[in-house]
Write a structure and sequence with these properties.
Radius of gyration: 56 Å
Number of domains: 2
Shape: rod-shaped
Number of helices: 5
Order of helices and strands: HEEEEEHHEEHHE
Number of strands: 8
Helix content: 25-40%
Strand content: 15-25%
């Protein structure tokens, strides 16, 4: 029996098919190797494709590399959210009542004020001192003496200025008065008297105006 001869063109076709199949297998292998994972995706950064493979609960940041024009993928862990306290702050305790010390007299107020009086025949220095709650020594300090007690003469009599002791009563010190005597008559302690009357050297002098409750 005579063996059939294989025609040359058939061999050529078989060789070409084998080459095509081998090339196809090569391309398939290359594609599978370069194919990104299922949860990744491609982005284009400055004309270059970059594979981004995100991680769950992470942020993906693409930072260009200096001098390359390309990009590199960094996976950054997310910062935990700051907890906001919902606790209602407790109110501060009520302030405790602090005793209010006596108010010192204003040093800017004039210690004396003046009232006008027309002398009558029955007036004396003593009666005028009682009438206006002043003292003979204080009137003398401002030039009022017995020689001024002329009927019809108008006198400017010095008296204690109420504005010097706001909220308190006024009194004029006479010879023999002491801080202890004033505080005892007013029913206050000596320290309270000094708090109301911050006087120099803790002393009073004749004709001085003092403040009392």
């Amino acid at each position: 029996m005579q063996q059939q001869e294989v025609k040359p063109y058939v061999l050529i076709v078989i060789i070409i098919l084998a080459i095509v199949m081998a090339f196809g297998v090569f391309l398939t292998v290359m594609y599978l190797q370069r194919r990104p994972p299922d949860n990744s995706y491609m982005v284009t950064v400055d004309g270059q494709e970059v594979v981004v493979n995100p991680v769950s609960d992470s942020a993906v940041i693409i930072v260009p590399q200096e001098g390359t024009g390309g990009g590199e993928t960094f996976v950054v862990e997310p910062q935990p959210a700051q907890e906001v306290s919902t606790n209602t702050p407790e109110p501060p305790p009520p302030p405790t009542e602090t005793p209010v010390p006596p108010t010192a007299v204003p040093s800017s107020a004039d210690m004396y004020s003046f009232v006008y009086h027309t002398v009558t025949s029955s007036d004396t220095l003593y009666s005028l001192a009682n009438l206006y709650s002043t003292s003979i020594a204080l009137m003398a300090r401002f030039g009022i003496s017995s020689t001024e007690m002329v009927v019809g003469n108008t006198l400017s009599i010095p008296v204690a200025n109420p504005a010097y002791c706001p909220g308190y009563q006024t009194d004029i010190a006479v010879e023999g008065d002491t801080p202890l005597g004033f505080s005892s008559s007013a029913g206050i302690t000596l320290d309270e008297f000094w708090a109301i009357n911050p006087l120099a050297n803790n002393a009073i002098y004749e004709t001085q105006v003092v403040c009392l409750p």
